[in-house]
Amino acid sequence: MYSPMAERLLVRALKGGKNTKIVTLNGKKITKMPSTLEKLPGLKTLDLQNNRIPKVCPEISTLTQLTSLNLGNNLLEEVPEEMKYLTSLKKLHLFGNRIHRFASGACDGLQNLILLSLNNNQLTWIPPEVSRLKSLTYLSINHNWLASIPRELCFLKNLSELQLNYNQLICIAEEIKFLKNLQKLFLVRNNIEVLPEGFCDLINLRSLDIAGNVIQIFPSGNLKLREFYCEENPLLMKQPVHAVKQEGVWRLQEITSRFIMNQLAEKNLFLMQAFEWYPQVRNIISQGRKCAICGKSFLAVWLECVEFVPPSKNWKISRNLQLVPLRILICSYKCFNQRGPNVFGIAQVESR
């Protein structure tokens, strides 16, 4: 169960009693977590990585002063329920196990956790309860089997770095826009096709790596990136579909909305005053967008296009990245026919 070296180190730690703050039993071929750890109530750091531990002992729940726990490279199959009792825990390393689920209630008491590493496991989903990790700033779940992430993860307002490389993600929740403090986002080697529009609301995002996905177009916006990597995505092929059709007949609502929005933009006093009396109309008009060619407003009918633009000079990028495809919207085929050489049509869209 323990090697002679592990036993000696454990005996030495136990002699210190409540004064023992750090226990390191890294790579000692331990097959069972020592239950005698309960005799170390003052323990702050516990390092048990690189062993053969299949589950934690119940006695770990007594270590309420523990701030750092490393159980990386063991044989755990779940994020243990006992974690909820470690209310002082700030760093939890569970990388390199066989974890495929979170035990019920595992996140309940981890309000002080700032770092969680779950790399190289077998997770196919993350429970909504992850939203209880209110202090989390760093989350890494690389090399798992995730097909999606819960929208609740997007409400971790303190999260500054999120790593989801080498999973099976096909989309990113629109709610990602609520991660206002996110600075680094890594989505390498997934199956992501589209980045949500809310992506551009990540005002503090500085590093973005989306290499090895199937992304064809990048949402337009004012991201202040310093690092941007997008190798092995179709967006570098510059082969969008041309979609040129005859102008359709607009609905009365579209015609009226365009007239009102453009008159408001020109400061029509009569409409501006009348506008205040009709909140329902105001709500509809607030959903309007602007044409990338003429700058005029439209409501529900547009042409979705892609414009290839040079990346910002401030970005640290791959050498072969010369143009970035940004999603733009055009109000009519009249404007579409006035587009520049780097604007390509994708599809006509009409919201219902």
Automatic annotation (TrEMBL):
<dbReference type="InterPro" id="IPR003591">
    <property type="entry name" value="Leu-rich_rpt_typical-subtyp"/>
</dbReference>
<dbReference type="Pfam" id="PF00560">
    <property type="entry name" value="LRR_1"/>
</dbReference>
<dbReference type="InterPro" id="IPR050216">
    <property type="entry name" value="LRR_domain-containing"/>
</dbReference>
<keyword id="KW-0677">Repeat</keyword>
<dbReference type="Pfam" id="PF13855">
    <property type="entry name" value="LRR_8"/>
</dbReference>
<keyword id="KW-0433">Leucine-rich repeat</keyword>
<protein>
    <submittedName>
        <fullName>OTU deubiquitinase 6B</fullName>
    </submittedName>
</protein>
<dbReference type="InterPro" id="IPR001611">
    <property type="entry name" value="Leu-rich_rpt"/>
</dbReference>
<dbReference type="InterPro" id="IPR032675">
    <property type="entry name" value="LRR_dom_sf"/>
</dbReference>
